[in-house]
Amino acid sequence: MKQQIRQIISKAVREHSLSRDDIILILSCENSHDYELFQAADSVRRQYVGDAVHLRGIIEFSNYCSRNCLYCGLRCANKNLRRYRMDADAIYKAAASAVSIGYRTIVLQSGEDSTYDADAIADICRRLKKLGVAVTLSLGERPYEEYRLWHKAGADRYLIKHETADPELYKKLHPGKTLASRIDCLRQLSELGYQVGSGCMVGLPGQTIETLADDLLLLKELDVEMAGIGPFIPHPSTPLAEYPPGPVDMTLKMLAVARLLLPLAHLPATTALFTIAGDGRERALCSGANVVMPNVTPSEYKNLYEIYPNKSRAEKTMPVAGRRQLENMITALGRTVAGDQGHSPKRKFSRAVS
Ligand code: 5AD
Ligand code: SF4
């Protein structure tokens, strides 16, 4: 067994592909092999994307959401949450302030909120591009034409996680929605020329090792530029309140296997992992991750974007001090902070990149 796992890991290091059975074996084996897996992921990370850690400033500009995902505190059925929207000027101001302290990528994230129409988002993209940054959008499922307009307006990347690759579980967790339509969005975004990010949660009620293996195989099949893998965290105002959080070790293993399968991908050390494990960011950065996404939302709104509990506590430091702390943590790991916009090394861009 021991020898077999070792062989599978070294094959993945060489070939960046694994069968479903091999992934299941790695994910289900005892802790004694985790260290070898994390080391292998760390060395693939170093070889393919180097020691630089990319910092992306995230602005959560609206916590309104028309969807009703069972796990999420922003679901429309949650009436225990004060809702907010930032206008275009407030978003610009938050972005300019993030740029002034060193961020070179701005991620705009919201619930699915159609109040911001296609033109409004395109205008915001154009304004942000003038700040000399890469722009990532994370606004959920929208029509193809809107994705196209925003890409033309300068949006470089789009994040939309598939959440779980099990179509039945997806349906249960997302009333009235399908995994197929999610995957359609991911394919459309890629075809339009976005650098695309997907990802999943680990430890969702009803998830199995087999479906986790399918999550990794789907990321590989979509050949994503980014993959966010974080633990499920139960939110008290949701139907999943009583379930346990996703396991830290399994989240790290998923991240490590993702690095083996997608050597050039950008893989964040997620805030969710940091929220349930104080050393989660460091451990993720040593297990394949090369991105951190600090929250640069104005402080008056930060604790209202409560997709899971204690998120704002994990993000409580003020932007300047927070960035300095993060830089110190990264340097202490023997890594560097990237100074460029951190585009995916996977794609050649037709668009001029400054
Ligand atoms: N626990 C962990 N992650 C969550 N997300 C939403 N709710 C939760 C939760 N309870 C994640 C989803 C979504 C992203 C915005 O936040 O993966 O894509
Ligand atoms: Fe809305 Fe996203 Fe939360 Fe689902 S996960 S309820 S789409 S904010």
Describe this structure in words.
By secondary structure, this protein is α/β, with parallel strands linked by helices. Helix content is 44%, strand content 12%. It has a domain at 54-250 and 296-318: Aldolase class I (TIM Barrel). The protein starts with a helix and ends in a 17-residue tail after the last strand. The relative contact order is 0.16. The mean pLDDT is 94. The structure holds 5'-deoxyadenosine and iron/sulfur cluster. The site of 5'-deoxyadenosine has 12 residues, from loops. The site of iron/sulfur cluster has 10 residues, from loops.
The overall pLDDT average reads 94
Distance between the termini: 50 Å
**How many helical stretches?**
15
Task: Please write the string of helix (H) and strand (E) elements.
Answer: HHHEEHEHEHEHHEHEHHHEHHHE
Strand arrangement across the biggest beta sheet: 2-3-4-5-6-7
The assigned structural class equals: alpha/beta
Low-confidence segments, given as residue ranges, are none
Major pleated sheet: 6 strands, parallel
The shape, in one word, is globular
CATH homologous superfamily heading of the domain at 54-250 and 296-318: Aldolase class I
CATH architectural type of the domain at 54-250 and 296-318: Alpha-Beta Barrel
Proportion of strand residues: 5-15%
